């Protein structure tokens, strides 16, 4: 049994730091139907995000706020993540996705003007991270049901960041090495805000 169950509280000591091998490999697909263990792990990951976004709890336990947490960021070789965010329209979203795949995306791209951050990266990384403005994702939800979800704007950025994690890609791999603020050529790209 995994230690990450509903009684366990994930803190920063559980978060795998950049440089760790598990963050650079493609994670293993989760067996469907999903096990009780997988369900518990996902709920535990989502609870970290809720705790990290709660000013009182995050201060007390020194949690860095996060919008998403992938299984490999807590050392689990499983293709799944939890996200908790609100978008430009201040709408709240909560998802726990298993074996997610991007099945289509827009041509237009967007980026966060302040750059992206990551719970596994304890340093500021400057630069533009180009992301698709809209994506469609096929995955399984926590009930083990196949779902197809569409995301745009901030939600699209969060989803792509987490799916990258499951494929061993860090957000800064997408920043132009020679000129971190150079926008990609031959594509319509604009700042999200």
Can you walk me through this structure?
The protein has 193 residues and is of the alpha+beta class. The protein has one domain: Peptide Deformylase, CATH 3.90.45.10. The chain is 19% helix and 24% strand. The strands form two sheets. It has a five-stranded antiparallel β-sheet with strand order 1-2-3-6-7. A three-stranded mixed β-sheet has the order 5-4-8, with helices on one face. β6 and β7 form a beta hairpin. The termini are far apart. The mean pLDDT is 96.
SS-based class: alpha+beta
The proportion of residues forming helix, as a percent range, comes to 10-25%
End-to-end separation? 43 Å
Average pLDDT reading = 96
Could you name the CATH class?
A: Alpha Beta
Largest sheet: 5 strands, antiparallel
The CATH fourth-level homologous superfamily: Peptide deformylase
- What integer value in Å does the Rg equal? 16 Å
Poorly predicted segments: none
- Order of strands in the sheet with most strands: 1-2-3-6-7
- Percent strand equals 15-25%
What's the total number of strands?
Answer: 8
Helix-strand layout with pairing:
Blueprint: H1 36-52, H2 55-61, E1 68-70, E2 80-86, E3 92-105, E4 109-111, E5 131-132, E6 134-140, E7 146-152, H3 154-166, E8 189-191
Parallel strand pairs: 4-8
Antiparallel strand pairs: 1-2, 2-3, 3-6, 4-5, 6-7
Would you kindly provide a brief summary of this structure?
With 193 residues, the chain is an alpha+beta fold. The protein is built from three helices and eight strands, in the order H-H-E-E-E-E-E-E-E-H-E.
